[in-house]
Amino acid sequence: MHSLPPHVKICTVLFFVLVVVSTPITYWPAFAIFFALVITSALAGKISIITLSKRALIEVPFIFFAILMPFFGTGERFELGPFNLYRDGLLAGIAIVAKGTLGVLSAVILSTTTTAREILRGLERLRLPKIMVQIASFMLRYVNVISDEMERMAIARQSRGFDATGIKHWKVIATSAAALFIRSYERGERVHLAMLSRGFDGELPHTEAKSVGASTWLRAFSIPAVALLVSLFFRMKG
Questions:
Q1: pLDDT in tens, 213-229
Q2: pTM of this structure
């Protein structure tokens, strides 16, 4: 899994997510199989379940939103203990949790088995607009530089006795944010001028990518293909 070309893995994850999203949530066994496929893929990529679970915590805010959905809506209602819930809202909430979790886990597996630079190369190979790839590339390159700049500014404020304790200090924080933006903008202009002076013509240099054989595509698409067959089976079965 780690050795697969990045653009192949991106297409595989995208296809799997499309199958999951298009499957009605009422087909419970299909989603159980989808989760089994995701866990199997993680284990095949030697990704521990603990690592997978920790990185999937990013979807927690959406889960809280989904929990509220059964309490609002229209249509049929039913009682569950002391609660009076809407059936459509409950199904929508479960769909958000199940499909969102599968999508997040798939993205986690992709990001764990592929470096950020490889993902950008894969997007470039898939003919994503070059300007978008370049913006993402520079963002990854300079996010640590901007983070270090923020840390130095925070240390400078603390060395002068500043301690944000309330609304009255928001003006200082806003001023610092504006200064950081100006510094980042000026740094971007200097980097662009340096690139132009070195012959930049709108396209970043890169090595020629090797062609991918049909066997690689078949091996990568085996899991989303199984997911598609499962979805079609339960659709026909009704």
A1: 888 888 889 999 999 99
A2: 0.77
